[in-house]
Structures are given as C-alpha cells and as structure tokens.
Amino acid sequence: MTRIGIALAFVAASAAAQDTRKSGAEFMSESTRAMQRDDTQNPAMLWVAGGAAQWNAKAGKADKSCAACHGAAERGMRGVASRYPAFDRAAGRVITLGERINLCRTANQQAPAFAPESEALLGLEAHVALQSRGMPVAPPADPATRAAAARGQALYRQRIGQLNLSCAQCHDDQSGRKLAGATIPQAHANAYPIYRLEWQGMGSLQRRLRNCMSGVRAEVPPLGAQELVDLEAWLALRAQGMPLESPGVRP
For the Cytochrome c domain, which residue ranges apply (predicted)? Predict the structure, then answer.
C-alpha cells in the first residue's frame, strides 16, 4: 500500500471510530432486532408483499402499472428510497417518497392519489424502500433540499408544546435513557416506513413525528405539512451514510 493509501485508510478509520451514531435498532431488545432481521418474522413484509402486487397492477385511466414505466422494482428502484426527501422540479418543492409515489400515480397513471397513511401507500413505499435496504442514506446536496434540512434542524432544536421540549432535548441529550419505560433513541430515521409494535401496524415517519409532538402537548401539523417534510429532510441528513434498514420494526 502506498503512503497516500495508508494515510486515507487511517483517516477513514479515524472517522469511523469517531462516529457515535446509532440506529434506533440498537436501542431495541434482541428479540425485536431478530424480528426485524428475519423477513419471515418481520410483520412489515406483509405490507411489502401488498406493495409488490400493486407495483405490477394496472391502475387509472392510463391503465398502466408502475412496472410499465420503471421495470422490475429490484432494478428500477434500487437506491431511490435512500435519496428522499428530495427536491422535485415538477412539484417545485422538496417532497417525501410517499409524495413522489402519489405524483407518479396522478400524473402518469391518471389515478387518484393514495390517502396519507393508507395501507396502499405504505405498502408501495415499503416495497420501494426494500430495494435500498443496506445502502447508505444519501440525501441530495442541492440547495433546495439542504435549505429544507436547515429549516428542519431549526425545528428540531425548537422548544414546543405545553411541556416546552425540543426534539434535541430528548434524542440528543437524553438518548439511551428511559422515558415511560421505553429507551430514547438518537432519532436516526433510517428504517421507515416501520412496523411499530405499539401501533400493531405500519406507519410513516410523519406519523411518528406527530406522535412525539402530541406527546409534548404541542399543536400537531397535518400529514404532509411543510414542517414535517423539513424535519424529515433534517433527519435524513443526520443519518447520512448510515445503512437503510427499511422496512424496520420498532417497539
């Protein structure tokens, strides 16, 4: 190995050693981690199967399937989920993966958009996300997406609600400690959509964010609100380089 190669290897090893980020999975019990790892035990795979069926089903006035444009999801969607939220030129704003699916549905299939948190949308989103499992989270570096992340960072640090708490106070300052019997994770959203045991069902990151806002007795924005998209963009930037686990399982 050359001197330059040795130096780069040393820098990379030092950076890895300094990275103290942990996936939410590392704060779970071994039995829950095993449930996520094993696709035959992971309940979220039921939604993935539904999403796979929808991927190949014709829909809308265009009578087209997702596969008609994108081909097999295993190839056409590889790496896509790891890049969202992202700026979309047609929409003129930063959008989530679920919104991207709905834009395809209304514009190309000429079918009605799926309702937020619907089984159909979560299934398709989970099927698409599965194709990026194991790949690093890679948020785009364009100015619009980074501006959304900057707004999300400010919201992350802003105290809200009757309890006057910010996301950072729990997930940065108290991570690893207990809150009402549950361990507080570091807020790395690299496994969504997730099957949550508490919900006994599948849910999006925005559902989880709204749960937290409700928990601190703050005004909860509607699904799809810009502040929720901005928070998603910031959480993606925080998790940059971490492997995508979708579809995840959480307590």
Answer: 147-239
